[in-house]
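A quick aside before the break. I want you to see a complete sequence-to-structure record at least once, exactly as it would be stored in a machine-readable document. Don't worry about memorizing anything.
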Amino acid sequence: MRIRQSLFALLVACGSNGQPAAPPLEQSQGQAQQATPVVRSAPVARLSQVALPAIAVSEVPLDQTPAPWTLTASDGSGLVATRVEAKAVMQGPLAFTELHLYFANTEGRIREGTFAITLPHGAAVSRFAMETNGQWMEAEVVEKQVARRAYEDFLHKKQDPALMEKAAGNQFTARVFPIEANTVKHVVLSFSQELPGQRYVLPLRGLPKVHQLEVALATTNPDGTRAEQKLAKRDWHPDEDFVSNASTSAEAITSGGVVIAQVSPFDQATVRPEVPKAMTLLVDTSASRALGFARYASVIRELVQGLATRYSGITVDVVAFDQDTQTI
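That is the input. The structure line, written in tokens, reads:
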């Protein structure tokens, strides 16, 4: 499932008859399970490697860094994230991440909350679900108004709906109800993303203190070998993100007859920049430009001189226009 930025994506939870539609990667608390790559690496002989740049360290003070995800109750108070588990797979230019987030409702009453998360650029949600009384409620994509009507119907029936909406950019919000009194709400979100020539990054900086945090990243190297990188913390206030330590990545991967590759049609080192031989500048000389016209004319003159200096032999035609045109 791919949610494009031009679409307003909504998900409403559906019952799963007590069984998850896609079993979560975790098996038990504290037990790490190795992520299994979902596609095969292309033969080494056909691959080239691309160097991955280092990630710049954020200079924003930690207390001013927004949390990458939150669960906020309807009264505005935040629910404590007691446990975070993330499992990711990275192969070539693709990565897949599954987040298991646990939020504690420490009050003796049922609450409704809003889950919010900022996903990486270009990421596509593939699963959103929440666990209630040992049963999974899986999400499905539906039309906006249908989703909201279904959500309200579930509320009246006192069932367990979850409504996720895609906002501008990579912002996603989800209404979650009910959050039972004195319990921990388990939310699962998975997404895929393209990482052409980039390191894998899982944002953590800005989260409040987390009792238990575990991150595991399985990587397939360009030579076909596999590596795993882990992060485990207890009672940690994240002051940094999880960043892949791989220095290179394969430019292509295959699965059956399908190939995904980073392609450049030219060797950029041998491509000569195009040098213009002629250029036409249109200059607005209408009455609306009267204020500050002297400075305006000076800028045009500097632009023409700059073009002549940069591109030797270029012909520059300056055409003034108002109700008609005149070449200067």
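Two observations worth writing down. The first strand starts at residue 10 and ends at 15. Residues 266 and 272 are 11 Å apart (CA to CA). We'll return to this after the break.
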